[in-house]
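S2.1 Query sequence (Related to glycerate dehydrogenase)
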Amino acid sequence: MDVIAYTASPRTTLESKKDVGYIVPGTGDPDGLIPSAWYSGMDKSSLHNFLKQDIDVLLIAVPLTPATTHFLGAEELAILGKRNAFIVNIARGAILKQDDLISALKKPIKEGGLRGAALDVTDPEPLPKESELWDLENVVVTPHISGLGTHYVDRSFDILEKNLSNLETGKKLLNVVSRGKGY
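Output structure tokens follow.
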């Protein structure tokens, strides 16, 4: 499983996959524990080098910013199609060019099509009734609920408790929003 700029949300998934032998490349880890390999950069060349790795499943978990809007289009999906990758998007729908995604999902596997996609987010959201995504057998669409795991509330309170302690002692806060960066 490969990850584009993951945050705490998919981290648990990655840890469990690494524990059972998956190689987990990615583009960021605040603690330096995961992934197994590093790739960084927002330019097309860096992105394409990352996507050319042996990717079976790509988990997208980046914030939507001007730099990440339509970050993955036909060119990137063609690279992923060479390995018939499966895409999981739990970030924002506009990170993928949805028409290009539909084309890559409709393309036969033998011709470099994607194996499938699990989309917790779409563009637009909610997904219109007439969208082709509803009719594709290799697509699962969920109603933007990926963040609501069984430990969500506990993790949220742990972060709140840690931040209150950090605030009181003058330490750096966790998960600070940067309006300048857009997330």
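Residues 133 and 139 are 7 Å apart (CA to CA). The radius of gyration is 17 Å.
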